[in-house]
Amino acid sequence: MMCSGMVSPDLILRALSKGADGVLVIGCHLGECHYLEGNYNAAKRVAVLKKLLAFAGVDPARLRVEWLSSAEAPTFVRVTSEFSEQIKALGPSPLKEVA
Amino acid sequence: MVEKVKARVQELLASGKVKGFIGLRELHGHIGPYLFTDGGDLDGFVIGDRKAAGDTRYPLNTQLIMISRQYPEETLGVLVRGCDERGLKTLFNTNQLKPEKVVSVGIACPQELADVCECMKPFPEEFVAGEASEARPFGSVERIESIEIGERLKVWLGEFAKCIKCYGCRNICPMCYCPECTLEAKDFQAVGSIASENPIFHLTRALHMAGRCIDCGLCSEACPADIPLRTLYKKIADIVDLEFQYRPGYQDSKGKMSPNVLGEAAKH
Known about the structure:
The structure holds two protein chains of two kinds. By secondary structure, chain A is mostly helical. Chain A is built from four helices and two strands; from the N terminus they run αβαβαα. Chain A has a two-stranded parallel sheet with strand order 1-2. By secondary structure, chain B is α/β, with parallel strands linked by helices. Chain B contains ten helices and five strands, in the order αβββαβαβααααααα. In chain B, strands 1, 2, 3, 4 and 5 form a five-stranded mixed β-sheet that branches. In chain B, helix 8 packs across helix 10 (about 230-245).
C-alpha cells in the first residue's frame, strides 16, 4: 500500500475472514504524511474497527496500528515480533472456523 | 393530523415555494411514495398510518435525491419525521442535497410509534402536526455487550447466517447513496454467490454506516430474516460518537459540519 490511509477497513475485515489471525497496520508517523492526512484517516478507521470487532465478538487485540518510518528497522523488528507473539498467544482467529 | 399537513403542502405548492412535494399517497389500498405537483390535487395524501401510526414509512429522502438530481434547479418539498430530518441534515453535510433547494414539512411521531421504534428523537425540529413524544432508550446494544466477548461472535454468526443476501438493508437505506457499493465489489466481497460471506458482509456494511446511520430502523423493518441490523448500526453510531463526538443528524441544522468529517484522530 502506498499509504496507511489506503488500507480500507473492508480489507482488514477481509484479511481476518480469509485466515489472518491478526492484522498490523503500519503507517508513517503522525504529522509526517506525504499525503498530509492519510495516517490520520488510518488511525480513525482502525479505532472504529477495533471497537466494532469487540462488539462482534472478535478480540480487538487482533488489530493494531503502529507508526514507523523506514529508517527505524530495529523498532520495526520489535513491533512485529511483539505483535506476532501476542497473536500466537491469542491462538487461531475464531473467524477461521467460519471461512 | 393529516389535514394540517395537507394544508401546509397545499400552501407550499400553490405559492410556488416548491415545485413538487414528495410524500406518501394511498392508491388502490397501497401506500407508496408520490410526487405531488398540484396543490389542488392532493387526493390520497397520507402520512403513512395504515393500521398503526407510521407503519408505512418509506425512505422519502432517497426519492428526493433522485428527483433533485434530475431537476437541480427546482426547490422540492418533502415529508419528514424525526429520523428523516436527521437524514436530511446528514445528506446536506455530505453534499448530496442542497439545503436551499429543500423545504421539509415535519410531523412528530405519536408516543406509540416512538415506543415501537425506541427512538432517541421522535420529532423534527419544526413540525406542523403531532406533538413531541418522549424519547425512548434503545436497550439492545447493552444486551449484546452483557454477553462475554467469546460468545458474542456466536450470537452474531447465528444472526448473519440467516441472511439471504437480498440487499434489502442497503436498498431501503436512505443514507446509502454511493453510486458504487463495496458490497458488490469483488475485491471486498464474494459477488454473485449466496449466502453472504459471514460475518464480513454485515460487518462491512456496519462500518460503512459510521457517520451515516441516522437510526431510522428501516433496515430492520425490511430484513426478511429479522437480523437485528439496527443494533449493529446503533453500536457503530455509539462508537463514532465516543471517538469523534459526532452523531449524524443530531447537530444544529444550521451549523455546517467540519470538513474533517469524523473529527480529530483518535488518541492511541
